[in-house]
Amino acid sequence: MATSTDTPTPRKAADKSARTRAREFALQALYQHLVGRNPVDDIDAFTRDLSGFHKCDSLHFDALVRGCVAQASDLDALIAPRLDRPLAELSPIEHGVLWIGTYEFQHCPDVPWRVVLNECIELAKSFGGTDGHKFVNGVLHPLAAQLRPAEVAASPRGGARK
Predict the structure, then answer these.
(1) 120 vs 109, 111, 130, CA distance in Å?
(2) Which of 26, 27, 37, 116 is 20 to 30 A off residue 125, Cα-Cα?
(3) Half-sphere exposure of 18 toward its Cβ, with a 13 Å CA cutoff?
């Protein structure tokens, strides 16, 4: 007979770290930028008024949103060669998640590459299409090796996928 301890309990929103929340809010903001081409200051003001924003790491949110928008062309140039379709055909969710991951690989050395990868996969699972997380993993994993070669090489299994 199965007990209640046999089934995993879903993670509560309260269990999320401030950085995880920052990535979620950043993805929402980047979606607004990608879909509506809204100015970053307007997106920032709108997002800060959303319920729960006070629980996120606002400095990380700022870095992600403003950094991704400012460096969009550079991020796209790193992402595009890894795609199986034209950049214009990416869903705005996948595009935003790939921006976040690529930006963090480049500019957030305090976040381990595996954490960046896992967080982006989780974002894609939560907000993206059915298999979007597999696509995100397939693009970001080799980008980790390109952008953080020493860290990936030093990790167990040399960064090899499961």
Answers:
(1) 16, 12, 15
(2) 37
(3) 9
What are the Cα distances from residue 4, in Å, to 23, 85, 108, 115? Answer: 32, 44, 39, 29
- Tell me the DSSP string of 95-108: HHHHHHHHHHHHH-
Distance CA 162, CA 150 (A): 20
- CA dist 38 and 33 (Å) reads 5
Owner of token pair 């390109």: 146
Taking the C-alpha atoms of residue 54 and residue 79, their distance in angstroms, rounded to an integer, is 31
Q: How many CB atoms lie within 10 A of CB 80?
A: 13
Per DSSP (E only), the strands in 42-148 are none
Give the end-to-end CA distance of the chain in Å, rounded to a whole number. Answer: 32
Integer Cα distance of 89 and 72 in angstroms: 16
17-44 tens-digit pLDDT: 899 999 999 999 999 999 999 899 999 9
**DSSP letter string over 13-48?**
GGGS-HHHHHHHHHHHHHHHHHHH---HHHHHHHHH
